[in-house]
Amino acid sequence: MKNKSTDIADDMGSHHEQVAKYYLAAIVESSQDSIVTIDFNRIITTWNKAAEDLYGCKAGEVIGKSLEMVMLPRDFVALVENVASIRNDVTVPIYETVSLHKNGKQADLQIALSPVRDETGAVIGVSTIARDITEAKLDEQLKDEFIAVASHELKTPVTGIKAYTELLVDKFSHADDEVNLSLMTKLSRQVDRLAELIKALLDTTKLTAGEMLLQIERFDLASLIEEQVEHLQGTSPRHQLVVEGNKSIPVIADRKLIGQVITNLVSNGIKYSPEGGQIVVSSTRTDGGVRVDVKDLGVGIPEGLDHKIFERYFRVDAPLTSKTQGVGLGLYITAQIVRQHGGKISVDSEEGIGSTFSFTIPEIRINEVTSE
Ligand code: ADP
């Protein structure tokens, strides 16, 4: 038999638990995000106020029914897989999807799935938190369209200016006019920078809109690396660029874009190692294809920013970054090109020690390449 004091302690415990439940219920109910829980058969078990607004259905109408009634059919498979992962205690990363409102309207959602556990810790269901990102996506799209139009319009006059600059450089060089030649050469270099920036902006909008088509061909990656490195070595005598790896690595990919990836990574290596030093580009064959590493001994990347640096317009907030030219698009473009090839990109870095960027190009079987 229990004694009296344990009874009181039990009562107090259950009182606190009850109060905590009230608080939790109030938070769920007042959340701006839709919070819905489902069981492993995707049957809805709870449905908060924000879910009522988002999907246009009252809790009473949907509890006991399948979550699929508020989703587009194309997203079922992903949901089934994700619920199975949660059931097996595998974390599902945040993802985007589209929902259906009762009145036929669609909303873009960002979904976070997490396990619901019982007191023993066993997973008994899935909580789905959905954030409406329709407006944010529209804003983003408008911004992209503006950048696309602006950079497209800027391209033509800048190409013209470059052509005239070249003409003048030529003229002053033939006339042995050292002073004007030097001024014109500087002007020409600045025009190149402007053209590069416009190209980066244009590439970004194309990549975001999925409009960059790959021109697949067979080529030797080793000689592409040699070519790019030789050119970049000329731009920075303070750095020692070293190429390691096989002398010949046949790959099937977009030569121009992979060249851009190598250039971007090596020139970042140069930019972010102001003290100079070695930059090693090495390539290795792997089971599934090829891996390229670009290693520098530069400033490195602060902890926790490994993923952020691949986002659009992201630059590390550091004195060196503000002194270095750039807008934070290079790595975004680089990562998109690698992903478009079905490859992966990652970075291993330590602040003050250096960084190694690695990317892979997966093997493509010849008969899968249509444009050959
Ligand atoms: P940008 O160089 O134009 O700023 P990137 O997209 O190429 O843009 O790089 C994003 C940010 O990541 C840079 O601003 C810099 O802070 C950091 N970064 C990139 N490469 C390196 C590197 N090799 N070493 C240290 N930091 C780097």
SSE diagram, text form:
Layout: H1 4-30, E1 34-38, E2 44-47, H2 49-55, H3 59-62, H4 76-87, E3 95-100, E4 106-117, E5 123-132, H5 134-174, H6 178-208, E6 216-220, H7 221-235, E7 239-245, E8 250-254, H8 255-271, E9 277-285, E10 289-296, H9 319-323, H10 330-340, E11 345-350, E12 354-362
Helix pairs in contact: 5-6, 6-10, 7-8, 8-10
The protein binds adenosine-5'-diphosphate.
Structure characterization notes:
The protein has ten helices and twelve strands. It is α+β, with helices and mostly antiparallel strands and 372 residues long. It starts with a helix and ends in a 10-residue tail after the last strand. Helix 7 runs parallel beside helix 8 (255-271). Strand 3 and strand 4 form a beta hairpin. The protein is elongated, with a radius of gyration of 28 Å. It is 46% helix and 23% strand. The strands form three sheets. It has a five-stranded antiparallel β-sheet. A five-stranded mixed β-sheet has the order 7-9-10-12-11. A two-stranded antiparallel sheet has the order 6-8. Adenosine-5'-diphosphate binds next to helix 8 and helix 10.
Q: Tell me how many strands there are.
A: 12
What overall geometry do the principal axes of the alpha carbons give? elongated
| Number of H- or I-type helical stretches | 10
Helix and strand pattern: HEEHHHEEEHHEHEEHEEHHEE
Short summary of the structure?
This protein has 372 residues and is α+β, with helices and mostly antiparallel strands.
Q: What distinguishing features does this structure have?
A:
372 residues, alpha+beta, five-stranded antiparallel β-sheet, five-stranded mixed β-sheet, disordered C terminus
